[in-house]
Backbone:
């Protein structure tokens, strides 16, 4: 696990740290080729410079976000924002269904929208894979 992500997780409450550590371990395992770092204050994993998945501490939960998640056709992910992102939220590590998470990570590799160049394209997303 990236040292900055480890530090981010350590700063969380015990319950939120358990969620974050589980997510980070599963994401690292599911996306071994991804670059991980703190981006805009939160842990994010990238493939070829394109953000794929990340998580953040919200007031009452930890949110897991897939940048291209609306294209996964998964009932466990809810639309987030005005682009293609989808999320799920956890209040306990016991809520994380690793089987679902592994499936979502496989889809995250296969289905990507080009967020890396969204500014160059003036807010227009292009499907990469």
Residues:
């Amino acid at each position: 696990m990236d040292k900055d992500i480890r530090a981010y997780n350590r700063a969380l409450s015990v319950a939120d740290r358990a969620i974050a550590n589980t997510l980070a371990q599963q994401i690292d395992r599911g996306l071994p080729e991804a670059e991980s770092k703190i981006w805009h204050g939160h842990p994010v994993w990238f493939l070829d410079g394109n953000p794929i998945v990340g998580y953040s501490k919200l007031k009452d939960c930890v949110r897991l976000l897939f940048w291209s998640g609306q294209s996964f056709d998964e009932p466990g992910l809810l639309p987030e924002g005005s682009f293609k992102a989808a999320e799920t939220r956890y209040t306990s590590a016991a809520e994380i269904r690793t089987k679902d998470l592994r499936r979502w990570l496989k889809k995250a590799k296969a289905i990507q929208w080009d967020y890396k160049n969204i500014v160059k394209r003036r807010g227009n997303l292009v499907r990469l894979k």
Observations:
- Residues 1 and 16 are 17 Å apart (CA to CA).
